[in-house]
Amino acid sequence: MFTGYEEFKKDIFGLTKIDLNAYKEKQMKRRIDTLITKNNISNYKEYVALIKKDNEKFEQFVNFLTINVSEFYRNPEQWQILDKEVFPTLVQKFGKNLKIWSAACSTGDEPYSLVMALSKHVPLNQIKIIATDIDKQVLDKARLGLYNEKSIASVPEEFKKKYFKKIGASYQIADEIKHQVEFKEHNLLKDSYPSGCHLIVCRNVLIYFTEEAKEEIYKKFNDALTKEGVLFIGSTEQIMNYKELNYQRKQSFFFEKA
User: Fold this and answer.
1) Which of 56, 117, 126 is nearest to 95 (CA)?
2) What angle do CA 48, 53, 56 make, to 5 degrees?
3) pLDDT given at position 27
4) At what angle do helices 25-38 and 55-65 cross, to 10 degrees?
5) Does residue 68 carry a pLDDT above 60?
6) Could you tell me which of 161, 214, 221, 175 has the C-alpha nearest to residue 194?
7) Which residues, other chains included, contact 185 with Cβ-Cβ below 8 Å and sequence gap of 6+?
8) CA 101, CA 105: separation in Å to the nearest integer?
9) Nearest Cα to 131, choosing from 185, 203, 189, 79?
10) Cβ pair 114, 201 in contact under 8 A
């Protein structure tokens, strides 16, 4: 719709350190153009000027860009595999002090789900999840831990009763779950990765990236995993060349570092 996208990408990288070259261009440009039109702006330069001077519009843009769609126990059948097969194997191999990273964690649904799921295998006070996202706003929401009914629909009943308190139309997650998660800002494309992870969870995020960016991130995840550590990806994703990237497929959506 608008011209000058190459220059716009450079401006955005300067402002946010988000590299739009790593995202599928057609899809991302269409989304950005829609947002710009909604703000009654007629070109990229004007929009850059707007987000430079208006912090609220800047936060709106980053939030929009980073595509935050999340829910607890998303695709429950995959969480069954995590519970019945992956967690028991990891605990058997590495003990109870597992290092787990929830990458691109959005509003916290995923890392909090991980705490609850792992609590069936490890005492709650021994669980520590590192949870990262590029978007400050969603990290603030994650730390707040307030969710709507739809978000928690797939949470097992025992955990709903035990760890959620109804406040008006929302549900507040218990502090005992919150305390086991450490939230940090992190850019998958440019920041250094944690090391020695036993499990990395990054789901339904990389579909928005180019093939080159995806491959680079999967390589970095492999480096971040300890030998026989596991990468858990989303149901919208696949790693076609997983052997070349030093993974073994354990189950659909679960890959072990070779």
Assistant:
1) 126
2) 95
3) 80
4) 150
5) no
6) 221
7) 132, 133, 134, 136, 139
8) 9
9) 185
10) yes
Q: Which two tokens stand for residue 190?
A: 């440019």
3-class DSSP state for residue 146? Answer: strand
Residues 6 or more apart whose CB falls under 8 angstroms from that of 144 comprise: none
Whole-number Å distance between alpha carbons of 66 and 15 = 15
Q: What is the pTM of this model?
A: 0.80
- CA–centroid distance for 195 within its chain: 17
Least confident of 18-22, 78-82, 150-154: 18-22
Residue linked to tokens 């980053």? 62
Query: CA nearest 142: which of 202, 169, 102, 189?
Result: 102
Under 8 Å CB-to-CB from 200, ≥6 apart: which residues?
100, 101, 103, 221, 224, 225, 229, 230, 231, 232
Q: List helix spans (H) across the chain.
A: 5-16, 25-38, 44-53, 55-65, 76-81, 87-94, 109-118, 136-144, 157-163, 175-178, 211-224
Sheet hosting strand 254-257, strand order edge to edge: 181-185, 129-133, 100-103, 197-202, 225-233, 254-257, 247-251
Tell which residue, 206, 178, 183, has the closest CA to residue 106: 183
Read off the pLDDT of residues 97-113 as tens digits, 9 standing for 90 and up. 999 999 999 899 999 99
Distances (CA, A) of 237 to 53, 67, 204, 216: 37, 16, 7, 15
How far is the C-alpha of 12 from the C-alpha of 62, rounded, in Å? 10
